[in-house]
Amino acid sequence: MTRTDIPPDVTGTKPAAHPSEGRTWHTVRPYALLWRREMTRLRHNPLRLVMGLVTPLLFLVVLGTGLEAASSTLGKAQLNDYRAYLFPGALVMSVQAPAIAVGISLVWDRRLGMLRQMLVSPFPRSSIVLGLALGGATTGAVYGLALLAVGGIAGVRYTPMLLVVLVELLLISLLFTSFGLLAAVTIRQVDTFQIVVNLSLMPLMFFSGAMFPPNGLPGWLDTVVKLNPLTYGVDAVRRTLPGPDVLTSEQTRLMLGDWNPPVYAELGVLAALTAAVLGLATHRFSRSR
User: Fold this and answer.
1) Looking at residue 106, what is its pLDDT?
2) Are 281 and 186 in contact (CB under 8 A)?
3) I need a surface site. Which of 28, 90, 213, 282 has the fewest CB within 10 A?
4) What pLDDT, on the 0 to 100 scale, is given for residue 67?
């Protein structure tokens, strides 16, 4: 028999959440909290964003304009618009600094005792690394987006393809962040960390085809450029950007022998390397004390 004399619940209390919902939030929460921490740092320090764009803009405007003018004066220019050619490298340069800053913050967290609080939290240590990586990658993508907004100075056209470029920059930023975190869980001194990172990033940028075409180089230099993972990121961004023909010409695209790797293959190389580096950083972080 059904009881009809029991009054309905008028207390306004909500039914208890399903246990699976609580488990889902418990899993996602560390990623969200650490990602929000990086976004809060970015929001409260807009000068950091401005200063982070100074170097790639100088690289693009001063170096690009100067070499373009010198080439036209000498009558030996092989690129119609060197500034447009430099723009993909400037984009990659813009995302590396904020991504590596996450590694620096982790070194400082260890020094100030914040890392110990993270380690004793109930969250899995892998979620801490992934949360920091996602926060750093998002910050780097914001820097890339800011530089894309002024891409008109390099002849870039504002089309929906820029969204694809932004996704590529997010992946490259995640790769930089993974390297930074791996260095941070290995190196305990801030000064040593900065020296190692700076000495690593400079060769990566110079030997990535960001400033000269990656083909037709001397034997040793050709090998270094082809082994550099950043070469594939710069080439993928260059071929995706909507702009002058110099971005997609046969003289400037990456060639592995007689094979021109498609963009999805280049992004696959970056994704595989990112997963490997992030996995190694997670493994080392899980053994931290």
Assistant:
1) 80
2) no
3) 28
4) 55
pLDDT of 181 strictly over 70: yes
For residue 73, give the H/E element and its range: helix 64-74
Q: What is the pLDDT, as a whole number, of residue 191?
A: 72
What are the tens digits of pLDDT across the range 127-141? 788 888 888 899 889
Helices 82-112 and 125-148: crossing angle in degrees, nearest 10, is: 150
Contacts of 235 (CB under 8 A, 6+ apart): 209, 214, 253, 254, 266
Task: Give CA–CA dist 253/77, Å, rounded.
Answer: 17
Taking a C-beta distance cutoff of 8 angstroms, is the pair 125, 282 a contact?
Answer: yes
CA-nearest of 205, 254, 241, 168 to 59 is 205
Does this model's pTM top 0.85? My answer is no
pLDDT digits (tens, 9 = 90+) for 113-166: 666 666 666 667 777 888 888 888 998 898 999 999 988 888 899 999 999 999
3-class secondary structure, 256: strand
